[in-house]
Design brief:
single chain, 1050 residues, 9-stranded mixed beta sheet, 8-stranded mixed beta sheet, 45% helix, 12% strand, globular
């Protein structure tokens, strides 16, 4: 390297980066080590490049650049290449330092927010606790933070096969309908193309096998796995089939019936002729939700005829897998009022942190590539909506879910303690985290027990076949003595898998080398140079270590193996009385440990992550620190040298392995599901309610009102405060009850309602036009409504088109708007008010008005029963009042920026006046604050930022449209939603789905408030801009609107 003194100056620059901003302990340690090298005269720029900088930054092509530069014969050309490389590394170092600094600030800010939110929530909930209760709660927290040795922290055990059978017999009479959702990837029941791409992997296998196993479980009548229908030329035709029945095993005890069993249901959404990655599916989520809703509605009627005595059979649970399905499941759960369960599989915040730690991409670049912020928001919504979160390990709960705004381990324990004592949580809720390991199929595993002290013939596979598996000879050709116990590791050549430490541990422990062989199954390769650079570099380092310790004849590292060879590899290791090892730095679950245990192999595994839970159940090995090389070699030597210990670990594993079977998984799963409070649409539909041909009969209208228990109570002023409004509503209900005593009066009342109510007409409309324009003032809005009426005048006359007004206004404000604009309430079929928290219908019958103060509208109480999930009610109201005062105090403002608007508040909407928009946080920060305090609600600002509404977490104007479909059969595809160029905080939800959307342009559109920063991702991640269901009108005049409507057949 003579003549390359300039390299040292660039290296000095690398080392000096970030000094001004402060260097953490790790960086100081690196700097100190480099200084020592220089002081001792052993500083090598080449070594620094390769061992420190290149590996530290994980830049995949730097290694190849270094090799090319070093091979140059011309010193001048070599120096030029090295100089360019130095500048590149220096820029990488600077970029990494900048990103690390930004992330440190982000983490610090988040920690402060969580601690503040936890303190505020604890203080808020402590006001009504006595000193004794506070002490008990503290004691409960201490117990919860114990060392985990108590049985309460362990997985629930079903100790034997007999116990499983007893559980199954106890619940076999249930007839459950379960809906699973897994949207992305290629999903089919047979010949799954696992590994075809990054979207078709372990999650696909998990979802399909779970559906199949549940379908074979006693008590479960039907399981639907909903996914995407793909009819693309580059994928197999089977992915375009609408329905696929999942075959059951020979011993499956599944229900019998026309529609019983497990099915893959493929819903068409997104581009019909393209298979696209999951990152590009986000704009089409609402289209999937509407298609899935249609399927579930149809299936509930079919199952009702088969097993429900004519009434609909609703899903007992909707279970989303991964973030995109979690977003979908939350919307479906809210629309149907059905419990939701969620499994994350891998989590966005955890991936974001890993990518940021690499220092190669900024947060913005990561978001652009992976749509990570859209994914994280979907996972936060899943936390808001789910009753149960299914995880594989406790590590996933404590280290991954704890990264989210909507979950905090400490606060969750406090809430559980209060719930057990029957003490109010003031509107706070936390989903229940349940650890249920993934299942495995063990039927194909044939265990051949052997005498521990006997000699084994490795050429005999135990099946009676004269020819052992080909993979056996492929492995044994590496060994000088193939009869020695085999230490088996099965992992791709990735630094996270820590194979190099294993090789060092084996190479430096002479007693272990003399007693055992080492087999490394590190994926498939033809040529190392053709592998990805990261894998190639790591595999090269493993091979160099084998050469360094002269392990030839002791280590096998075959180049190829098939997936079908893996069971034979496990069996070979077991026949040699070997050990399976997983030394990864951290292992989220550890499925290979379960597979190895099923073949009778004791295990040595990392103590970080899922193996801890697996070891608690199987008790068939030793946990080690993956950084402790001597600890790894000691554990391996102990197992292969002590035959009694090896046999005991083998027997423990085989005895307990059934707990990781799919039947066991399903029993654990269902035992949690059946504890959930049943929820479903709270009304009864008549048998012929969906038959449009019979709806012209007045008697059917009467039946709708009288027999279906419509629960439409006449509203007084639905916008009074919660207490006075409730009292008046009770009086109204009492009056209606008194009226109902007289059968003759009831018949007269029902007949009038049947003749004048707009409810049955909703079902007969060919189209529904939804007016949801937030960006216009009242005068312009009235003018636009008149233009819409005029544009559809012919359809209005023949009553083929109905109208719904969707707004953030209260019902009394809507009434005033109609009167001032000279419009009739009967011009509309329904009114979605207060941002989707109330649904009204016009009532033209004067006899139904019980007092002069009442408005001519009927309030749909069934809708309230649909949206009340996790609504905190009066406790939430008190919390919000205190919160609004604290927000003002934080800013040091004398005047309160948020004031409770009692006149506009109702039972399901707490309204606030925004007096100082400069002080109030934008809506995304507001939602974050609510989630940190475990307040599950939907917060949104009006378009101009003067009003703030807090409504139930799954209520919105778009969800109200889905309710109209569920309740009255108004097809979503026949709805046309008219919006402005911007709107309230829930504007995005009105654009997507199978309904049609018209965006009205024009000068009437007022600019939105700065408080409307509701997204940390672009609108294109919510709705497809090129959707055929969206058209834009250049104006809001009659001709413009008419032209837009004609494109949708109106």
């Amino acid at each position: 390297m003579a003549g390359n003194d300039w390299v040292n100056s660039y290296l000095e620059a690398i080392l000096d980066v970030g000094k001004e901003g402060g260097i953490d302990a790790r960086e100081k340690k690196k700097e100190k080590a480099s200084l020592l090298l220089r002081e001792r005269g052993r500083f090598s720029p080449a070594r620094y490049f390769v061992e420190e900088v290149i590996s530290g930054f994980d830049e995949t092509d730097l290694y190849k650049t270094w090799l090319r530069a070093a091979a140059m014969r011309s010193p001048q050309e070599r120096n030029t290449r090295l100089e360019n490389m130095c500048w590149r590394i220096w820029n990488l170092a600077r970029k990494k330092k900048e990103i690390e600094g930004e992330e440190l600030l982000q983490h610090s800010k988040r920690r402060m927010e969580i601690e503040r939110g936890r303190r505020e929530a604890t203080a808020d909930m402590s006001e009504d606790l006595s000193e004794g209760e506070k002490g008990e709660a503290a004691g409960a927290d201490l117990l919860a933070h114990g060392d985990g040795s108590s049985r309460a922290g362990r997985m629930a055990r079903i100790s034997s096969i007999d116990a499983i059978d007893a559980w199954a017999n106890q619940h076999k009479d249930k007839k459950l309908y379960i809906v699973l959702i897994s949207i992305h990837g290629l999903i089919r029941g047979e010949n799954m193309e696992l590994g075809r791409d990054s979207d078709t992997g372990g999650q696909v296998k998990y979802a399909v096998e779970l559906a199949r196993a549940l379908g074979a479980t006693p008590g479960v009548y039907r399981v639907d796995l909903l996914t995407r229908q793909i009819s693309a030329p580059d994928v197999d035709w089977s992915y375009g089939e609408p329905t696929e029945m999942l075959t059951q095993g020979d011993d499956a005890m599944n229900e019998t019936g026309e529609s019983a069993g497990a099915y893959i249901i493929r819903i068409p959404f997104g581009p019909r002729d393209k298979y696209i990655p999951k990152e590009r599916l986000w704009p089409h989520i609402q289209e999937f939700v509407d298609g899935a809703l249609n399927h579930i509605m149809q299936m509930s009627r079919v199952l009702g005829e088969q097993i429900g005595d004519g009434g609909p059979v609703w899903p007992v649970v909707i279970h989303g897998h991964y973030a995109d399905a979690g977003d979908s499941a939350a919307l479906l759960s809210g629309a149907l009022n059905v419990p939701m369960v969620f499994t994350g599989h891998s989590l966005g915040r955890d991936k974001l942190e890993q990518l940021l730690r690499q220092g190669r991409q900024s947060r913005e670049e990561i978001n652009s590539m992976y749509k990570i912020m859209r994914r994280i928001e979907a996972e936060e919504l899943a936390l808001d909506a789910s009753e149960i979160i299914v995880t594989s390990t406790k590590q996933e709960v404590e280290e991954q879910w704890n990264l989210y705004d909507g979950f905090d381990v400490v606060l969750a324990k406090k809430l559980r303690a209060r719930i057990k004592r029957g003490v109010s949580c003031y509107g706070r809720y936390m989903p229940r985290m349940v650890v249920i390991p993934p299942g495995m199929e063990f039927k194909h595993i044939d265990i051949h027990d052997t005498d521990v002290d006997g000699e084994l013939d490795v050429h005999d596979d135990g099946s009676g076949s004269p020819n052992p598996p080909a993979i056996w000879s492929e492995i044994m050709r590496f060994f000088t003595n193939p009869r020695k116990p085999m230490i088996l590791a099965l992992a791709r050549p990735d630094p996270k898998k820590n194979i190099t430490t294993l090789v060092k541990a084996f190479g430096e422990c002479r007693p272990l080398r003399e007693l055992a062989n080492l087999t490394l199954i590190m994926g498939n390769r033809d040529d190392i140079d053709e592998m990805s650079t990261t894998n190639a570099v790591y595999l090269t380092s493993v091979l160099k270590l084998i050469d360094k310790y002269d392990l030839y004849g002791l280590v096998a590292y075959p180049k190829h193996h098939k997936q079908s060879d893996v069971p034979d590899i496990y069996r070979l290791a077991a026949k040699t009385k070997g050990v399976f090892i997983n030394p990864a730095y951290i292992e989220p679950f550890g499925l290979t440990l379960i597979e190895a245990s099923a073949y009778g192999l004791p295990i040595v595994a990392t103590k970080n992550g899922g193996p801890v839970d697996i070891h608690k159940v199987l008790d068939n090995g030793i946990l080690v620190d993956p950084h402790d090389q001597n600890g790894i070699s000691d554990a391996l030597y102990k197992l292969v040298s002590d035959k009694q210990l090896w046999a005991r670990c083998r027997q423990n594993g085989l005895k307990n392995i059934h707990r990781f079977s799919w039947p066991e998984h399903c029993k654990n799963y269902l035992s949690k599901i059946i504890t959930l409070k049943p929820r479903h649409p709270m009304w009864k539909k008549s048998e012929d309610s969906a038959n449009d041909s019979d709806l012209d009969s007045p008697s059917d209208s009467l039946k709708d009102i009288k027999d279906i228990s419509l629960n439409l109570k006449l509203s007084l002023d639905g916008d009074e405060n919660a207490n006075s409004g409730r009292t008046k509503l009770e009086n109204v209900i009492k009056k209606l009850s008194d009226v109902a005593v007289s059968s003759s009066h009831l018949e007269s009342h029902s007949t009038n309602a049947g003749g004048n109510s707009k409810l049955p007409i909703l079902r007969r409309r060919k189209h529904i036009i939804v007016i949801a324009i937030d960006s216009a003032n009242e005068e312009d809005l009235v003018e636009i409504i008149r233009n819409i009426f005029e544009a559809s005048q012919l359809e209005r006359q023949n009553q083929s088109v109905g109208f719904v007004l969707s707004t953030s206004l209260t019902m009394s404000e809507v009434h005033s708007l109609l009167i001032s604009g000279g419009l009739l309430s009967t011009d509309f079929d329904a009114f979605i008010c207060t941002s989707g928290s109330d649904l009204y219908y016009p009532n033209s019958n004067a006899d139904d008005i019980l007092s002069p103060q009442e408005l001519p509208f009927a309030l749909d109480l069934d809708y309230h029963s649909q949206i009340e999930y996790r609504w905190g009610g009066e406790g939430l109201r008190k919390t919000l009042i205190r919160w609004s005062a604290m927000e003002t105090d934080k800013k040091g403002d004398e005047e309160q920026a948020l004031v409770m608007d009692e006149d506009r508040s109702s039972s399901y909407c707490f309204a606030f006046k925004v007096t100082n928009p400069q002080v109030v946080p934008p809506v995304n920060e507001l939602r974050k604050s609510m989630r940190i305090q475990a307040l599950r609600c939907h917060v949104l600002y009006s378009h101009d930022g003067t009003k703030l509404h807090v409504i139930p977490v799954l209520a919105s104007r778009s969800q109200a449209l889905r309710y109209l479909y569920i309740r009255w059969g108004v097809e979503l595809s026949k709805m046309v939603v008219l919006v402005g160029e911007s709107g309230d905080s829930d504007y995005d939800g009105l654009l997507g789905g199978v309904h049609k959307t018209v965006i009205l342009k024009g000068s009437f559109n007022k600019p939105p408030s700065n408080l409307q920063k509701s997204r940390s991702y672009p609108l294109d991640d919510v709705v497809a801009s090129d959707s055929p269901n969206i058209v834009q009108s250049e104006g809001c005049g009659t001709s413009d609107i008419k032209s837009a409507l004609q494109k949708f057949g109106i």
